[in-house]
């Protein structure tokens, strides 16, 4: 299996090339049942910039936030079909089949075992606890590697999730075409991607803040995630989106609602409540803006040359007439809330335009299948 080091460029392809077994191979077939599988390619990063809203061209800046990016895809693989390839005294175990080697699509009647929540939870725990990240430059033997959970206990860290259906691709030796017969359909993949993002957050909260995790479970993770998402909104836009969308028809310059959707006045009791919510959001936003500026002024501890180049690039990004400044604030609000401590989570767009700019002192790439 060969993983292509793309240094952050997308789309990302992982070529899974299976050579036919020799005459000394021993094959054990235990049925034709297939199972859904989670395919990950993980790269170490020292920072980056991710598109999170295609329509509004909204990006999240993860400046000076070392961590990992996980490119994720969902596909089918044979369940229970194993080939033990013998090469002298050395054995290798693969999950290939003759159909997979030829790149053929499996029959529509072939039963498929779904990807379970339990398996995804274990995969998320592995991603968060395996020693794959570093805070700065890396040692030749990777002895400085640490887990995301450990890294986030000492510095601001990030975990980025980007959907990449092309990971489930195969290339027959000698062929010049990629085959994607083992991909799941788009709707199912989108459903699983949403579950993966939610479970990754769920497991991170359990590992980093177990006390708050128990509290969130009592209130319901769905409600908690929705409220956490709402804290990332500019106060000027807060009453125009999310749960407030469509409730009001007029706003002042600061984004505070003036009239209800039907054009009538807002009751005084409701105005008082909305004022309290608005002021709290404004305080968080301003505090995060200050922290975001302080974070962007910090220097990388990699080396002086790369630090100077990266810093100049950040200055240019901040001058762009886009949502860059706001998205820097977005990443800091999570710290202000204290839910995941210093660990920031950012998720790429599904099924449309994607954008990802990354910095790395050495990608340190791994391919995992769960």
Walk me through this protein's architecture.
By secondary structure, this protein is α/β, with parallel strands linked by helices. It has 2 domains: 238 residues, D-tyrosyl-tRNA(Tyr) deacylase (D-tyrosyl-trna(Tyr) Deacylase, Chain: A), CATH 3.50.80; 122 residues, no CATH class. It contains 10 helices and 16 strands. Strands 3, 6, 9, 10, 14 and 16 form a 6-stranded mixed beta sheet that branches. The protein has a 3-stranded antiparallel beta sheet with strand order 2-7-8, with no helix packed on it. A 3-stranded antiparallel beta sheet has the order 5-4-15.
DSSP helix fraction: 25-40%
Number of discrete domains: 2
CATH superfamily of the largest domain: D-tyrosyl-tRNA(Tyr) deacylase
CATH architecture of the largest domain: 3-Layer(bba) Sandwich
- Report the count of strand segments: 16
Number of discrete helical segments: 10
Low-confidence stretches: 1-11, 13-30, 81-103, 298-338
Overall mean pLDDT stands at 72
Task: Outline the biggest β-sheet.
Answer: 6 strands, mixed
CATH topology name of the largest domain: D-tyrosyl-trna(Tyr) Deacylase, Chain: A
Helix/strand order, N-terminal first: EEEEEEEEHEHHEEHHHHEEHHHEEE
Distance N terminus to C terminus? 15 Å
State the secondary-structure class. alpha/beta
* Content of β-strand: 15-25%
- What's the CATH first level of the largest domain? Alpha Beta
Nearest-angstrom radius of gyration?
24 Å
